[in-house]
Amino acid sequence: MVKKRWDKPKSDNAFLNDVSFIVFVVRFNYNVVEKKWPEITKAFHNFDIQKLAKLDENDEKTLEKFMRAPGMIKNKWKMQSVIINAKKCAEIQREHGSILKWVAQAKKNYKESPLLAPELRDIFRVFRGIGPMTSTWLESLFMSDKSYVEYEIPDK
């Protein structure tokens, strides 16, 4: 097993980066995604929410451009998910000021009233590709008192 460290995102774009990483890792090899991630990040405009939210996830030219990007994992559903999640992030920003404020408010609500407020893992499921298991990954990060979490993955 290899020990990894995951830092809490410090910006909304970093949050989209983290969600997108999780989407790409699901049903894929973690080490391959991690190795290709710098190139994938570049292809997706450093996960700039405003740029990505303007794209059409069903536009074949847009998807083909991503497919041709160096290092891209060529999975149409995952690429579309990044764009769809960027749109969801932009919507949350309009409603709450920022994604990090939205998460902080949800965390506060849960701590004040755990029986009535949704758990963080439930709010994270608004993002495409974030399900019951992967939402707990994000929840553990944001519920931690530290600025990071550590976890282990198989070394293959």
TrEMBL record:
Pfam families: Adenine_glyco (PF03352). One of its GO terms (biological process) is base-excision repair. Coiled coil: none annotated. GO terms for molecular function: DNA-3-methyladenine glycosylase activity. Gene3D superfamilies: Hypothetical protein, domain 2. SUPFAM superfamilies: DNA-glycosylase. It comes from the Archaea. This is Uncharacterized protein.
